[in-house]
Fold:
Amino acid sequence: MSSPTERAVSDSAPASLEEGRRVLPSRTEPLVAAVTAPLGGPIGDHAAVGRHWFFSPQRVGLLLATLALMLCWFGKASCIQQYTDETGHNQLDWRAGRPYVAMCYTDLVPLYTAERLNLPDTVPYRTTWVENADTPNAQQHYMEYPVLSGFFQWTVAKIARVWTAVSDAGWLPGALPVAVYFDIAAFWLSAAWLVTVWAVGRTANRRPWDAALAAISPLVLVHAFTNFDTIATAFAATGILAWARRRPVLAGVLIGLGAAAKPYPLFFLGPLLVLCIRAGKVRTWALTAGAAVATWLAVNLPVAFAFTPGWREYFLLNAQRGMDPDSLYNVVSYFTGWAGFDGAVPQGQTPSVLNLVTAALFLLCCAGIAYIGFTAPRRPRLPQLCFLVVAAFLLTGKVWSPQYSLWLVPLAVLAIPRWRPLLAWMLVDALVWVPRMFYYLGVSHKGLPEDWFLGFVVVRDLAVAALCFQVIREIYRPGHDLVRLAGDDDPAGGVLDGALDAAALKRRQPAMAS
Structure:
């Protein structure tokens, strides 16, 4: 016997999916319907949808995102606490493994000194320093981030220095410089995530409430301030929105800026090329690709010419980097004892086999995604292919830093707007943070052994792979795609939305019920 919530969703779903109407999750998603039960249940047939003076789906999404970001800040705040040492000086309280026990670790705090941002004369990519100077492992270092992320950190450090100077004069509240730096960085990273949520809501067309999935994602609660990745997600999401609004040059500029912060937005050009070839819109793709490359070069070339060794640091570091603990290669190596992925390569040398394997697997996945894009009975939606490419990069890569999962959130919401599986994946992915922190704490300090942590990593990877399978299933069976059931073709598609296949790529258009 069905519950009242299930009957309400079942009875009202056809009306909510009627072509041309806004999709209401409280009537189409059992989970949302259950959550709204204490508030009166699913929205009624005669409700004045879209006429409230303030609480539009966009504003509700931004309010939810603001709440999530506040909770994330409180979660990280334990790592900017201070104490007074024996000499009477205030120090950052990272004693007794505090970042791991409190699970508040954030890269922003150690990078403040590691990247020499605490020094007044630091210039990213020009300033250099030597670590382990008195040992055989002495190495020269520069800023190790892409140009836009590097100068973001430098700008925030300069603002923090001004704030500290004013607070010392008694005009502003004061704290340790690193705490001031973290708070200012968190403010701008929050703004970037709000832009991401806004862009997702604007792109979703008849499904604006889906932006709430990005807003309240458990991954945001944990990783919004773990690193600087919300900058890239903001540019990536607005780039897709610009493409959806049929502004290909602006889309390219935004994608290029995103790639100057973290490289992954450049991956969008591959799915765009496949879909544009299929729709006969290659000239439009060329405008976007050209603008993206030109923008990336405009940001990078001045630094590359002025500070060549420092600019190369990011690329050299990634080439020499070994497999991270949370990569599938480490899982295989740990449980099988096989060292074939250059496990014994000394620090500072390139793991050639590992780099070759990761590149080959990713390119193979890209070829498979292109095949899907060309052979699907109906042209896939842009977010579907973008999600598959970014997920393939993470699954096959030698590095999956925890905050990288934020890259998938906007794409997943647009590609597969099914609340229960998405929230389940986000929760699993976010919870990997717990065993990760206790693994880093170390067994000698009552932490977790590596095999427990790797077990959670495998579950996370399986969850992402399951989402990929669902996306591919909906590509080949578009009658199961909730976006197309709502009456849209491809809201993010721009010139691709509603376009027919090119003459040489005609495909049989399946019935929506297939």
